[in-house]
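Researcher: We're teaching a course module on how sequence relates to structure. For the next exercise, students receive a sequence and then see the predicted structure as tokens, so they can try to spot secondary structure elements on their own. Here is the exercise chain.
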Amino acid sequence: MSTASFSTFFALLTVAAWIATAALWFVALVHRRAPDSALGVLFEDVGQVALWIAWLVAIVTTCGSLYFSEIAHFIPCKLCWYQRIAMYPLSITLVVAAVRRDARVWWYVVPQAAIGAAFAIYHTQLQAFPSQHSSFCTITEPCTVRYVWKFGFISLPLMALSAFTLIITLVLTARATAELPVVEGTVA
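Model: And here is the predicted structure for the students to work with:
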């Protein structure tokens, strides 16, 4: 498969991730108001597999970034590396949490994913407005080059942002639907 085909595939996954994130937040709101409704029950069902889905998002994102740098030979800039530093460990953390059914994983996944999302937001806007000066950019590793530009708005940092956002949403869904034992002195 060509790099253009992979780029289109990952751009479609990006759109799907945004749709899934919005749908899950909507279903969560319905669940809050009517937990016994069909959508409320759907929210509970998704919560049971949310950590596995979050892990799938993390592993696909990790493999995608490795494809773009190692096979397509796109040069990752410092901002790309910071996003990778936030994403790659999630592939391991989330599979361990999914196997253990540990919904408390949100304590360390959400901050890590939020930091990755912050770098992705900054990188996305930097590509949208490339005339800005950034200390992250160098001539050999430019932050403003759009190696992928699909559907007129999807770039590599936007792909990362969609993955971080969906992972945060899924981990919070797992937390909201888990039956966590309350331990004195801790916050569930």
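Model: If you want an answer key for the exercise: The first helix runs from residue 3 to 33. Helices lie at 3-33, 38-71, 78-100, 106-128, 156-177.
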